[in-house]
Amino acid sequence: MDDEFRQLDRRICRLETRDAVRLERDVHIDRRFDRLESMQKDTQGTLNRLGWLIISAVLMAAVAALLSGAFQPLNL
Questions:
Q1: H/E element holding 64?
Q2: Is the Cα dihedral 44, 46, 49, 50 positive or negative?
Q3: Per-residue pLDDT tens for 12-63?
Q4: Nearest to 6 by CA among 58, 48, 14
């Protein structure tokens, strides 16, 4: 009877240890995904700003060409 209680106690200890390890692993994974989401948002913001910069540069080039007379018809 005493041997059965020791075996049961060992089984319970193993289960509790396994659950604690899983919990810590899950917390670690959650933190990693939180960091990835943050990095993805930063990257997305940078790409968004870069896109607006390119669009602005193209528009400014068109305005500069318009003001310099690049779009006037050729007199042949």
A1: helix 2-67
A2: negative
A3: 999 999 999 999 999 999 999 999 999 999 999 999 999 999 999 999 999 9
A4: 14
Neighbouring CB atoms inside 10 A of 46's CB total: 10
The enclosing H or E element of 14 equals: helix 2-67
- How far is 62 from 50, CA to CA, in rounded Å? 19
Backbone φ and ψ of 30, nearest 5°:
-60, -40
pTM of the model: 0.56
Residue 30, token pair as written in the block: 């959650």
Residue written as token pair 């193209």:
58
